[in-house]
């Protein structure tokens, strides 16, 4: 499974979200690849099953074949766990 964490430039928020998503996936026992990327690159992606992003970027990612999961607080592992669990389990 492939998950991408997306922010405007692909070097800040997306990296934090990637690291925390990987922690959550390990705790859930789910094998997935998580990549951090920019909106521009994400819009060209067609192989990710899930896109994790901030709520303000959701509109820019609409129309992709991936499920878009907005995360309000990137450091809140409980939020990430709940939202990933709902999407994956």
Automatic annotation (TrEMBL):
One Pfam family linked to the record: PTS_IIB
Domain (PTS EIIB type-2): residue spans on this chain: 1-89
Keyword Disulfide bond: no
Gene Ontology BP annotations: phosphoenolpyruvate-dependent sugar phosphotransferase system
Keyword Transferase assigned: yes
Keywords per UniProt: Transferase
InterPro entries in the cross-refs: PTS_EIIB-like_sf, PTS_EIIB_2, PTS_EIIB_2/3
GO terms of molecular function: protein-N(PI)-phosphohistidine-sugar phosphotransferase activity
Protein name: Unannotated protein
Organism: freshwater metagenome
């Amino acid at each position: 499974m492939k998950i991408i964490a997306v922010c405007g430039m692909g070097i800040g928020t997306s990296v934090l979200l990637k690291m925390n998503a990987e922690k959550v996936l390990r705790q859930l026992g789910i094998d997935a690849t998580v990549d951090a990327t920019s909106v521009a690159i994400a819009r060209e992606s067609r192989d990710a099953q899930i896109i994790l992003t901030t709520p303000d970027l959701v509109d820019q990612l609409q129309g992709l074949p991936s499920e878009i999961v907005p995360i309000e607080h990137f450091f809140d592992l409980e939020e990430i766990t709940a939202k990933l669990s709902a999407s994956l389990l």
